[in-house]
Every structure is written in structure tokens, then in C-alpha cells.
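not sure who needs this but someone in the group chat was asking about Histidine phosphatase family protein from Nocardia rhizosphaerae so here u go. i didnt clean anything up, its just raw.
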Amino acid sequence: MTVILLRHGVSTSNIGGTLAGRTPGVALTERGTEQAAAVADRLAALPIEHIASSPLLRCQRTVAPLAEKLGLEPEHDERLIEVDYGEWTGRPLAELLTEPLWKVVQRHASGAVFPGGEGLAQVQQRAVAAIRETERGLAERAGRDVLWVACAHGDIIKSILADALGLHLDSFQRIAVEPASISVVRYRPTGPSVWKFNDTGADLSALAVTAAPAPGGEVPDGADNGNAGHRDSP
């Protein structure tokens, strides 16, 4: 069984200087819409049989072009939803940099719990469970391997990749997952293997960004070019 982990395209929050979290109505920018169309063109030739998505708008709009090309109806999975950042949701990123919890998220993610929200260990547990359970269900129904897509958010995908790579959650900040990037995990009875991660094809624009990104992989204000690395950010 093989899953293509797709991060949503650049959103209005990615360039707005705030932490979106689960704020409703956060849409894609013009660049994000272009990325969604490009992803659809790139993946439409593959024998994808299922699309699962976070229920948030930015993920729905990212998978919509692909779903239309493939004639599939995306399944909204609440377990793929963005981290509940609690009281951090909607706050300016510049303020969050001064919070003591910021360093905890960087250095001891497994012990980080957002005030009024989730802990990152809880996030990884639900995200990995979503992937594994969907894998099993697809295999049982098809009686064979299935290629499918799961569209989610930066920290969600990073936690899934950390599990597949056998990394402790405390090391998940070492993984970069840019907007509209794909990462590929193949699950076999003997264990998972990571075939690709943070793959954006020929688009290398993220390498030109020097400003430090923000919690959840947000792009610094004015840098609407697809960057979402996690250098010193949750």
C-alpha cells in the first residue's frame, strides 16, 4: 500500500503573519491555487484510487483539481485536520517567538502541549492512526495494494514521516514539508519505507527564502513562494 502525502498549497495565513491553526475560511492564495493545479497535472496520470483530506478549506481546495481530473470524491478525515493550537490560534507569529513553549516545541516536541489545545504526541497518534486505518480498509476492500492521496498540514505530515522513518517525535522538526509538496510512504508487512519527501518537482523557489518560518510551517510575510521549512519553528 502506498500513500502520497500532499501538503496544501500556500494559504492566506502562510503569508499573513499569523498562526491559522483551525481558523475556518483560510483559503489558498493565487500562488496556492496555481500549485494545486500543478499538483493535479503531475499526479493525474497515476492510478490513484482514493483521496482523503483534512476538512479545512485550504486542503479541500488543494485536492479539488486532482479529484476532478480523477473523478473521485475526497473523503474528509477529521484525524488529518491541523493541530489544535489552542490559545495560540490566530496570534501574530512575532509574539509566539517570545513564548517559552516555542523552544519546547523545537527541542522536546513529544512533551509540548499547546495551551487550551493539543499535545504534539497526541497529534502524531491520531495522524498515524488515520493513515494506517485507511490503508487497512483500502486493502481489505480491494484485495490488493492501492495508491492513494492524503492531503493535510505541515506538522501532520511531518509527524507521519517521523513515524515511517523510525524517528522519535522530538526529531520531527528536522523534516521539511513545503506547501504543495508530496511525500510518499509505502507500507509493507515488514514496515514502512519512505520513497520521497518534500518533493516539489522542479520548483526550487523555497531555497531562496532566508527568513525563519513560523509555527505550523507558515511562510514569513512577503514570502509567497512556497517556502515552509521548519528552521527553528514548531
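also The longest strand covers residues 191-199. if thats useful
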